[in-house]
TrEMBL record:
Organism: Luteibacter yeojuensis
Assigned protein family: Belongs to the peptidase M1 family.
Database matches in InterPro entries: Aminopeptidase_N-like_N, Aminopeptidase_N-like_N_sf, PepN_Ig-like_sf, Peptidase_M1, Peptidase_M1_dom, Peptidase_M1_pepN, Peptidase_M1_pepN_C, Peptidase_M1_pepN_C_sf
Keywords annotated in UniProt: Aminopeptidase, Hydrolase, Metal-binding, Metalloprotease, Protease, Zinc
Protein's name according to its UniProt entry: Aminopeptidase N
Pfam family, one: DUF3458
GO MF assignments: alanyl aminopeptidase activity; metallopeptidase activity; zinc ion binding
Main EC class the enzyme belongs to: hydrolase
Domain Peptidase M1 alanyl aminopeptidase Ig-like fold: 444-548
Length: 873
């Protein structure tokens, strides 16, 4: 397969000033007539992308071209044109109902009831019409939709409405004009039977905007929370970044058939229903937060992505990393900032760190790709956001705002690069941010080593910081990157010390940021009376792995005393890592295990920690993160050791206090969505799981009762998972009950499939295979495939990594079947093989045979082939 390289970037030879599109919509066959006003930029033929299009007509400046006058090969239409401008007209036919890849124009739902919609990012527009389908071609769009009124009563496209009417024959039309030049990947249309909820919004700069959220009739009453989130997002972007919405209408549409979370098409966002619908009976607290975050994310793209877009797909993180950062800041403002940071860092460690350490590792700005769809990754999104966070931290709140203002003003209506972004932020602040470019070009998670030496005679503490980034796939040599380290020093009573660095005349605050910008640097702190405990990387000030030889007692001091919730949790995570090492090594009386359980038992009994933070503190790193602490990776042993540490914790707290606290929380149970109620549910879940390790019968009885009485999905699903994990025979009845209760509710059933797919142990494969026989299971729906196969392969280490390799072979077989329907989904699931090389020998051999067998096939999609080729290396 061919490789696209950043180094080969060349500006477009022809750009498109205006596009006029007319759709004659039909489920089996849609005709698209396109008129493009093209302008020459270089002395080259005109080249347009087009895939899977039946070409019906082609003309240049009103003259129809015959067969010898163009070349159509390998998805490119090439025409040699004289002159500097021309009008190109094409008419093509496409087949939406046959489009199972969900890229381009496709059908969501059934033939008789479903609706038509588009997905164009990254390269879907070329499945709709011939066009220079690249993000640096920005054009003004006019779109006319024509369709049968009874079958397609609602017709939507991005931009402002510009007329509608009847055509006779029961057909109607609607036209839309988008005044903002945009790249083709932001184009969208939707047509079908949809209901809506609406809200009249006035922007801070006085524009009246009609907000409409559209969904099929059976779920329209679950869109209220999304509307609420949208309004808050719009207000937040006005307040925080001075950004106003810029069209007269804003549409949001929900679909159950979508390859990703959502899509920021200009004026017409399209959402996977999973991230738009929410109601207490079928959504968990986590899902409510996801809806809020994804609605905000897509809305924020209107500026970071749409008004200023990407020059090429290598710059993807320019819009995605920045927009994730904006979304994270919004969620932190709407909810609890420390809890949000805990959630984000946990996700980074669970999803991005393993990616960065394995064969699929790539820089936040990759230098080459063979399939761009495979680069919508945790690295581009989550690590990309961490890079923006470092820049924002470097500039400070006001400096960052000034920088963003300049970035938006300077590049409005343009397709920009990461260099442009750093330059604008820097220029607005007289700062040189170019050293941060190294972060964008280099894969791998830097290791930050910290070594402290206390000199009693000099009353000094010398903190030596060193960095090293391990070699990654195809990138052996690494350079130093700027690492901002926010830090405090604590004495042994838990008090934070005022900080004075060598050479400074006065002590400053108790917290400050030092930047390690080379391989090694020593920072010397003065006026220190006793060896302090350093609290490093506060707020996770850089996306690195900290290696510091803490004694368990030192971490326990931070866990008990650090006033910042995030750092308290972080100290707990570090200490839990050491406690895990004790359990792994069979050291049941290890000092770390004792320090961890004692500190947490004291915090539990002391009552000084709020419910939400306590629930987080009682959750050690998961099995996937703990893999890193294992030389020979055997998921079974990891689980056993992790369960042992949790059992030790439950014993230390005591079964009776666990029961008592659980009962108190149960008595206070409600379905309310406020933060304290959510925290109570979260803590209740942790307590039930801990109780199951020391009083299985008591926990099962309580979980069954909780399932029966739950006022909402959070409690119901948590109870079901606990019973199914710890008392599986008693789970049969409630599992069957849940299935009946939510029959027909796709999102609730997805959770039912996922919960069972994640139940640990070698029996999981048989369970998953049985679930494939459920009438609601289908390989055609991405959410369903993710919930059963994705959850099993990526979130059930003991189930998927069976020593006999049976699950690997089974997944390989399914990947081939999925790939024939939807390559993007197959490729994403295949990333489950990412870490096979570091498994213990028996599993490694089994996985290798399967990966090599798949990689040798020549009948798979480019998406899946690309992942397999990299994983197999
Ligand atoms: N920008 C969106 C990306 C996206 C996408 C990419 C490839 C294939 C399908 C897709 N659907 C959406 C998502 C986002 O807002 O980040
Ligand atoms: Zn995005």
């Amino acid at each position: 397969t061919s490789v696209i390289r950043l180094a080969d970037y060349r500006p477009p030879a022809w750009t498109v000033e205006r596009v006029d599109l007319a759709f004659d919509l039909g489920i089996d066959r849609t005709e698209v007539a396109a008129t493009l006003e093209l302008v020459r930029q270089a002395d080259e033929p005109m080249r347009l992308n087009g895939e899977g299009l039946e070409l019906l007509e082609l003309s240049v400046d009103g003259r129809r071209l015959g067969e010898g006058e163009y070349i159509l090969a390998n998805g490119v239409l090439e025409i040699a044109v004289d002159g500097d401008r021309c009008t190109l007209a094409t008419r093509v036919a496409i087949r939406p109902a046959e489009n199972t890849a969900l890229e381009g124009l496709y059908l969501s739902g059934s033939r008789d009831k479903g609706f038509l919609l588009t997905q164009c990012e990254a390269e879907g527009f070329r499945h709709i019409t011939f066009f220079p389908d690249r993000p640096d071609v920005l054009s003004r769009y006019t779109v006319t939709l024509r369709a049968d009124r009874a079958r397609f009563p609602v017709l939507l496209a991005g931009g402002n409405p510009d007329g509608a009417g009847e055509l006779g024959d029961g057909r109607h039309w609607a036209r839309f004009v988008d005044p903002h030049p945009k790249p083709s990947y932001l184009f969208a249309v939707v047509a079908g039977r949809l209901e809506r909820i609406s809200h009249d919004y006035t922007t801070a700069d006085g524009r009246a905007v009609a907000l409409h959220i559209w969904a099929e009739a059976d779920v329209i009453d679950r869109c209220g929370y999304a509307m609420d989130s949208l309004i808050r997002s719009m207000q937040w972007d006005e307040r925080t970044y001075g950004r106003n919405y810029d069209l007269d209408v804003f549409h949001v549409v929900a679909t159950h058939d979508f390859n990703m979370g959502a899509m920021e098409n200009k004026g017409l966002n399209i959402f996977n229903a999973k991230y738009l619908l929410a109601d207490p009976d079928s959504s968990t607290d986590d899902e409510y937060r996801h809806v809020e975050a994804v609605v905000a994310h897509e809305y924020f793209h209107n500026w970071s992505g749409n008004r200023v877009t990407c020059r090429d797909w290598f710059q993807l993180s320019l819009k995605e990393g920045l927009t994730v950062f904006r979304e994270q800041s919004f969620s932190a403002d709407m909810n609890s900032a420390p809890l949000k940071r805990i959630e984000d860092v946990a996700l980074l460690r669970r999803a991005q760190f393993p990616e960065d350490a394995g064969p699929l590792s790539h820089p936040v700005r990759p230098s080459q790709y063979s399939e761009i769809n495979n680069f919508y990754t945790a690295t581009v999104y989550e690590k990309g956001s961490e890079l923006v966070r470092m820049l924002a931290g470097h500039l400070g709140r006001d400096g960052f705002r000034k920088g963003m203002d300049l970035y938006f003003a300077r590049h409005d209506g343009q397709a920009a690069t990461i260099e442009d972004f750093l330059k604008a932020l820097g220029d607005a602040n007289d700062a040189d941010l170019s050293p941060y470019l190294a972060w964008y070009g280099q894969a791998g998670t830097p290791r930050l080593t910290a070594e402290g030496r206390f000199d009693a005679a000099q009353r000094r503490y010398r903190l030596t910081l060193r960095q090293r980034t391990p070699a990654t796939a195809g990138q052996p040599a690494k350079q130093a990157v700027p690492i901002p380290v926010r830090l405090s020093l604590f004495d042994h009573s838990g008090a934070a010390l005022p900080l004075r660095l060598e050479g400074e005349d006065r002590a400053g605050d108790t917290e400050r940021t030092v930047v390690l910008d080379g391989a090694e640097h020593a920072f010397v702190f003065e006026d220190i009376d006793a060896a302090p405990v350093p609290s490093l990387l506060r707020g996770f000030s850089a996306p690195v792995i900290l290696e510091c030889d803490y004694l368990p007692g030192e971490l326990a001091i931070l866990l008990r005393h650090d006033p910042d919730g995030f750092n308290r949790w972080e100290a707990g995570q570090q200490l839990a890592g050491l406690a895990y090492d004790d359990c792994r090594d069979g050291n049941v009386d290890g000092s770390a295990l004792r320090a961890w359980t004692r500190a947490l038992a004291d915090l539990f009994a002391g009552g000084g920690v709020d419910d939400a933070l306590l629930a987080e503190l009682l959750t050690p790193p998961g099995e996937i993160e703990l893999v890193e602490r294992q030389a020979e990776r055997d998921p079974e042993r990891i689980r056993i050791a992790r369960q042992a540490m949790l059992r030790a914790l439950a014993r230390r707290i005591g079964a009776e206090p666990l029961r008592e606290r659980y009962e108190q929380l149960r008595a206070a149970t409600s379905a309310a969505l406020d933060a304290p109620s959510q925290a109570q549910r979260q803590l209740k879940r942790r307590l039930l799981d801990l109780l199951a390790l020391v009083d299985p019968a008591g926990a099962a009885e309580r979980a069954l009762a909780q399932y029966g009485q739950a006022p909402g999905m959070t409690d119901r699903l948590a109870a079901l998972a606990t019973v199914a994990t710890y008392a599986s025979p008693s789970a049969e009845e409630p599992i069957a009950h849940f299935r009946r209760r939510y029959d027909g509710n796709a999102l609730a059933l997805d959770k039912w499939f996922a919960m069972q797919a994640m139940l640990p142990g070698a029996e999981a494969l048989a369970r998953v295979q049985a679930l494939e026989g459920d009438p609601a299971f289908t390989l055609k729906n991405p959410n369903r495939v993710q919930s059963l196969l994705g959850s099993f392969a990526r979130a059930n280490p003991t189930g998927f990594h069976r020593a006999d390799g049976a699950a690997y072979r089974w997944l390989a077989d399914r990947l081939v079947a999925i790939d024939a329907l939807n390559p993007q989904v197959a490729a994403r699931i295949a990333t489950a093989f990412n870490g096979w090389k570091r498994l213990e020998p028996v599993r490694r051999e089994a996985a290798h045979a399967v990966v090599a067998g798949l990689a040798a096939r020549t009948d798979l999609s480019r998406d899946l082939t690309d992942i397999l080729a990299r994983v197999a290396l």
